[in-house]
Amino acid sequence: MRFHERVPVVPSDGNISRIRKHFHEALVMNQTTLPVNELVKMLRKIGHDVMRSDDADRFVCNYVYYHSLRFAEEHGIKSLFVHVPLFSTIDEAVQMHFVASLLEAVASLN
């Protein structure tokens, strides 16, 4: 789930505002149409320590996720946002293995 917040990434986007965009008095939320719980279950089954989150955090991550969901909706495709740790936390080889597993899991959904 992603809330659109008017938080610019570049100065030309305007002043920073933490005000959330509302539509007819309701908070506008977007979320992936992929079965995230199923993906998490598949990845955990093969040993990856993953969890679902409904928070892409703020600023750049929020901006990227919101706009990727909007683009996906406009073009009839799916989008998924994945937070990844620094290589100093989880090394590159482990993360590359995870990405390969994630892509295989997503591909198996069709």
Automatic annotation (TrEMBL):
<dbReference type="InterPro" id="IPR016125">
    <property type="entry name" value="Peptidase_C15-like"/>
</dbReference>
<dbReference type="InterPro" id="IPR036440">
    <property type="entry name" value="Peptidase_C15-like_sf"/>
</dbReference>
<dbReference type="GO" id="GO:0008234">
    <property type="term" value="F:cysteine-type peptidase activity"/>
</dbReference>
<dbReference type="Pfam" id="PF01470">
    <property type="entry name" value="Peptidase_C15"/>
</dbReference>
<comment type="similarity">
    <text>Belongs to the peptidase C15 family.</text>
</comment>
<keyword id="KW-0378">Hydrolase</keyword>
<protein>
    <submittedName>
        <fullName>Pyrrolidone-carboxylate peptidase-like</fullName>
    </submittedName>
</protein>
<keyword id="KW-0788">Thiol protease</keyword>
<keyword id="KW-0645">Protease</keyword>
<dbReference type="GO" id="GO:0006508">
    <property type="term" value="P:proteolysis"/>
</dbReference>
